[in-house]
Amino acid sequence: MKEMRTEMKTEIRQMSDDVKDIKENCIRREEFVSHQLKLENKLDRLMEFMMKQGRQLRWTKMNCAGRCRPASFAANNGTVMRTLAIAGCDFKFLKLKGLLLALAGGMDRMALCSSINYLADSGYLQVRIEDKAPSSVSDAELEDLEVKLTPRGIQLGAA
Length: 159
Description:
Layout: H1 2-25, H2 29-86, E1 94-95, H3 96-102, H4 109-121, E2 125-129, E3 145-149, H5 151-158
Antiparallel strand pairs: 1-3, 2-3
């Protein structure tokens, strides 16, 4: 029995020490909630700041793209139209693969596809696949497409 009392006293002291340690080193529920609210407020302010900066960044990128891209896009369109006019593509179709080779170094594949797509949609070019069926840049591989100027494209080149 004496051993049991001693063991219980030891356990009670250990629990008492643990409770003291918890009181000294841990925060209470109220403190936790307070810190949590402060953290949430900081995160809200950070999110607002990031959204504001993100809008400004997107606007800057769009503004730059709006100013820079059309100049090169228009130049690429002009290059394609002049190249087709020089190649005599007002009465025959030219393979786009050949046009890409002719423009090597001056225009990459994606820029050529963008220009051909735009000019075809605008009615300046006619695009077909090699088996003579009408097509578009987005429907077939570049190597399978042929292109020629439409009457509207010829008029534009003559102007």
